[in-house]
Amino acid sequence: MSPGADMTVLVPARLRPRDVIRVGGAGLRARPLRVFLSALGIAIGIAAMLGVVGISASSQEDLNRQLAALGTNLLTVSPGNTLFGEASHLPAEAEGMIGQIAPVTAVTAIGATKARVYRNDHVPEAETGSISVTAARLDLVEDTGATVAAGTWLNEATHGYPATVLGAKAADRLGVVHAGPDQRVWLGGQWFTVVGVLAPAPLAPELDSAALVGWPAAQERLGFDGYATTIYARAQEAHVVEVRGVLAATANPEQPNEVEVSRPSDVLAAKQATDATLNALLLGLGGVALLVGGVGVANTMVISVLERRAEIGLRRSLGATRGQIRVQFLAESLLLSAIGGVGGVLLGIGVTAAYAGIQGWPSIVPVWAMAGGVLATLVIGGIAGFYPAVRAARMSPTEALATP
After folding, report:
1. pTM of the model
2. Rounded alpha-carbon distances, angstroms, from residue 259 to 1, 76, 256, 345
3. Which of 1, 108, 173, 324 could form a disulfide with 143 if both were Cys (CB 3.0 to 4.6 A apart)?
4. C-alpha closest to that of 78 among 263, 229, 208
5. Alpha-carbon distance 105 to 153, whole Å?
6. Which of 40, 17, 27 has its CA nearest to residue 392?
7. Are the C-beta atoms of 87 and 81 separated by less than 8 Å?
8. Residue 238 CB coordination number (10 Å)
9. Residue from 348, 341, 350 nearest 378 by CA
């Protein structure tokens, strides 16, 4: 070539981001069923993980709302065992003495009786349904945070008469669906009118399976000895720990070692911790499903490279660089994973909302979990598509076009 001749250098066209997405999308549209099945594996993994996180968050939010409504300042006092392993009982003055503690704002109690309750007087004596008959103070519902679901609670006019209020489980086992003058149960060998039914009591679950009668009625009609079996005390929030430390000695100064003190809200928190352990296992299973989905993406992309060797050869012959071929197949892998990730996030939100709705919980799906789910799919897509993309880029035009 003579000096000064015009020299034209051919430079491969550069792929703009929208071109990369368009080319990658075209590759996916050519195999819709395979793309759907591969994306489904990713979606199931993400949905499983997001569902576990969402359900756990919804449960925690429900617990927080319950504790905010019921309070964490309720303490219970109950008799334990003597040094010889025999059942003890609280002194008759225990309620009054606990009420003398300065930070204590309310005190109430229940007492177990030996009576049994049945739907009618024809039920065999052995079929008790695990329902206890319990004497109750008039301020029990207010102080424990329990609520009446149907009818009314005991009052000054009814607590000395054969009237009872059933806990939620007790009413269900007895087949009592409403309260009123026409609803009666056979209790302690006589008829008692069901004046009310309680809703489930989270901080006092022992009430759920009990038939509650007035303290005077229990003493006069059921042979109740008058000793409280559980005392409930409300303390000022700032002094709950201090009050808990002195309750045993206050309730039974002579034998404080025979007194058991607990905080019902701690039981709910412990249940939440147990659920968290199960959630960790479920998250692991979701991770396995996500890994399997990633293997499916890699398999799809490897097969795609083998099936499209002629296309790769043609593009290389027309000037596409190895880098552009790598970007094309890596884009397909990322798009495939993103489809599965977005589908999994939507499915996980739906599962969480449905389960929370059934349980009556608020539906909570953390934003970090949704963003993390999509990011995880992109990382998996990038890893799964890296080898197929490199393999496609290494093909020479003549080799690719010569392969049938």
Report:
1. 0.62
2. 107, 10, 5, 51
3. 108
4. 229
5. 21
6. 27
7. yes
8. 9
9. 341
Q: Which residues sit opposite 140 in a β-bridge?
A: none
pLDDT of residue 10: 47
Q: Would you call 212 exposed, middle or buried from its count of C-beta atoms within 10 A (0-12, 13-18, 19+)? A: buried
Phi-psi domain of 4 (left: phi exceeds 0; alpha: psi -120 through 50; beta: other): left
Q: So what's the pLDDT on residue 273?
A: 58
Burial grade of 297 (CB within 10 A; 0-12, 13-18, 19 or more): buried
What are the tens digits of pLDDT across the range 189-221? 999 999 999 999 988 999 999 999 999 999 999
HEC string for 175-238: CCCCCCCCCEEEECCEEEEEEEEECCCCCCHHHCCEEEEEHHHHHHHCCCCCCCCEEEEEECHH
Average pLDDT rounded to a whole number, residues 27-44: 79
- Classified as helix, coil or strand, 157 is coil
